[in-house]
Amino acid sequence: MAGVGELDGVRMAGQLLGFYDRQGRQLPWRGERDLYRLWVSEIMLQQTGVATVLSYYPRFLARFPTVESLAGSTEEAVLLAWQGLGYYRRAQHLHRAAQRLVARGGGLPEELEGWLGLPGIGPSTAAAILAIGRDQPHAILDGNVKRVLARLLAFPHPLNSSRAQQVLWSVARQLTPRQRPGDYAQAIMDLGATLCTRSQPDCLRCPWQEHCQAHRLAAVASFPVVVPRPGKPRRRGVAALIFDKNRQLLLCQRPAQGLLAGLWEPPTLAMDDAEMLPLEPQSVAQRIAQRFNLHTTLPQPLPPVQHTFTHFHLTLYPFVCQWLGEEGEGVGNEAGYQTVRWLPRAAWHTLPCATLHRKILRLLEPPTASPENH
DNA sequence: AAGGCGGGGAA
DNA sequence: TTCCCAGCCTT
């Protein structure tokens, strides 16, 4: 690996900025000076690709145009605007941080220290907001930058150890110029996103080719070093689609902690073993009765829905049935749901749900006419 | 230091 | 399929 001292930071920054001026991406948050809007973009872009964020960003800002409007809204409304973006904790942190800043008064922080410590703000996000929004010379270190630096140095270790992080932050700081640090931050992310991509990097056009140790070794594909990950286990569950006599559907709000915290879903039963397949409607009814204290008609199966989470695959088997009880009877709640509600079809979309549960609810929609069928 | 956390696009 | 992404938080 090349010594850090061999890097000519000033020359390299100039080359990268030249690349950025010629062929940087045009993105809605480019040139943004409003720290609130920039903050929203940075949070959305955590672990989420630009292509996905592009559709959410303007909608979210139209709904919550200022930090005050965000702070003054309910978490449910924020989650609804975030619905489908994933990592919902980001939205909850964003909301809480907005409330904290508004309560504190004085607007959005103009210095790094004011951002660090807010929920959802880590060192790279804080640096990005002030580098881009105020042209302060802070280094950033995200996935794109890590990949670029790993190749630049022919970095021979996996990137996520704390030692590797230390080294990469150090190099990132060393390369960050005093001139145009905001453009530089966006330029190095553009480089990683458009040329120094994970597969098939376009070294021919790279402004840093002459400095790149991986390229010199003709081994760009060998960096960054990756450790093989264990496969994801598959879990199964039953989604109980329970209607009452008024065609209202039972929906439940998940616990405030853990996976999909605070989002809504049809009551779901985890199935511990695949041995239970095929599922007998009788046993589904029995378990609904045990778990939620709801006696129902014989559940009818719908096609299973597949979904992949960060750490596991999930297959949900939806069953439709009708509640036989009377209004006023309580719904049991051993699943730890925060609250449960009966909702008419027109109200389903007013509650935030994860994509998985949108898929389930779509099974209950009448088939939509295809564009050809006028 | 390690594990948890959604979803979608690319290959 | 598998990998990874404008990371951060909790344990």
Structure description:
Mean pLDDT is 91; it is low at 369-374. The chain has helices at 9-23, 35-44, 50-63, 67-71, 75-82, 89-104, 112-115, 123-134, 143-153, 162-175, 181-195, 213-216, 281-292, 355-362; strands at 234-243, 249-253, 264-265, 268-271, 300-301, 305-308, 313-322, 340-343. It is elongated, with a radius of gyration of 25 Å. The protein has 374 residues and is an alpha+beta fold. Helix content is 40%, strand content 11%. The chain folds into two domains: 4-222, Hypothetical protein, domain 2 (Endonuclease III, domain 1, Orthogonal Bundle); 234-362, Nucleoside Triphosphate Pyrophosphohydrolase (Alpha-Beta Complex). 32% of the residues are buried. The chain contains 14 helices and eight strands. Helix 9 crosses helix 11. The strands form two sheets. Strands 1, 4, 5, 6 and 7 form a five-stranded mixed sheet that branches.
Number of strands: 8
The CATH superfamily label of the largest domain reads Hypothetical protein, domain 2
Give the tally of structural domains.
2
- CATH architecture assignment of the largest domain: Orthogonal Bundle
- Output the number of helix runs: 14
CATH class of the largest domain equals: Mainly Alpha
